[in-house]
Amino acid sequence: MKAPAMHRPLDITEAMDWESIRTMIGGESHVSGKALHKGSDGQSECGLWICTPDKWEYHMTRDEVCHFLEGRGTYSNASGDVIESTPDSAGLFPKGWQGASPVHVTVKKVCTIR
């Protein structure tokens, strides 16, 4: 069994265009990334995610662990929880967490969804 690895994710410039965010509040963020692994059942995946500035609503349908590499964004929900994504910060967004996320400066993160 092979163990996939991603070296120097900040240096990755060739990313695949991914579908647009369907829950945009503002204009339209451009989303791209590079998959490191996607489980055969579609329930687990990990890789690099890049999102340009704008604001969108989200509803976590699975747990997601993120390590933010660069950029800046704010994740907040109705109960007042706020996670500021800044370079070299990390966060866990549990299944069911929902709210709004303005991306202020293009965000690049490595994440695992399960």
UniProtKB/TrEMBL annotation:
Superkingdom, natural source: Bacteria
Pfam families named in the record: Cupin_3
Record-annotated (S)-ureidoglycine aminohydrolase cupin domain positions: 40-110
InterPro entries: RmlC-like_jellyroll, RmlC_Cupin_sf, UGlyAH_Cupin_dom
Gene3D superfamilies in the cross-refs: Jelly Rolls
Protein name: (S)-ureidoglycine aminohydrolase cupin domain-containing protein
UniProt lineage: Bacteria, Pseudomonadati, Pseudomonadota, Alphaproteobacteria, Rhodobacterales
